[in-house]
């Protein structure tokens, strides 16, 4: 999933991008309002992280324009302005959440996850070939046959499906499924992937969960 980061301070934009990459997202950076408008017009983003103060544009106007173009795209405002009336202005312009700088990585991570979870909640079904996941019924089917998964296996499969066709590392899986600081010596991710693969792929001709040597795992139907 791609996330647009609109921030003119290089250190902050790079740091934010690093955090997002670690979480398994694809950050795209814009250091000006015009660059952000150009990117937003031609791409679909799962989230926009928007600085309120830009050298060439007004963040409030930018937020309003983005919401007019694509109302369902969540926007997280990231700014040094911390007064109540500044927050109210930001939220009234259409922002879904508001966070002040400087920020802790844990807070950014939590807010990003909440916004994406809320946004993705409008889509209750994930698919890959004949594998279907119903997030409301908590049900998984392969070729119409029900597959019973543990809570953690379900979360692991959901994360893989949300990154359909895109390899994810063991670190990304650990942080997004377990919220762990990954221990390189731990094999917990590999153990669960093996269990999930056995349930999903063992009785099917087409294997969906694949190992990317030296990196991690991917689910696709190619």
Summarize the structure.
The protein is 42% helix and 22% strand. The protein has 222 residues and is α/β, with parallel strands linked by helices.
Note the main attributes of this structure.
single chain; 222 residues; alpha/beta; Rossmann fold; Arc Repressor Mutant, subunit A; 2 domains; five-stranded parallel sheet; four-stranded antiparallel sheet; 12 strands
Please provide a written account of the structure:
- The protein has a five-stranded parallel β-sheet with strand order 2-1-3-4-5, sandwiched between helices. A four-stranded antiparallel β-sheet has the order 6-7-8-9, covered by helices on one side. A three-stranded antiparallel β-sheet has the order 10-12-11.
- The longest helix has 16 residues, at 105-120.
- 28% of the residues are buried.
- The chain starts with a strand and ends with a strand.
- The chain is elongated, with a radius of gyration of 19 Å.
- It is an alpha/beta fold.
- The protein is 42% helix and 22% strand.
- The protein folds into two domains: 2-120, Response regulator (Rossmann fold), CATH 3.40.50.2300; 125-219, Orthogonal Bundle (Arc Repressor Mutant, subunit A).
- It has helices at residues 10-22, 33-42, 59-69, 84-92, 105-120, 151-162, 170-178, 188-201; strands spanning 2-6, 26-30, 47-51, 75-79, 97-100, 125-128, 131-134, 139-142, 145-147, 168-169, 209-212, 216-219.
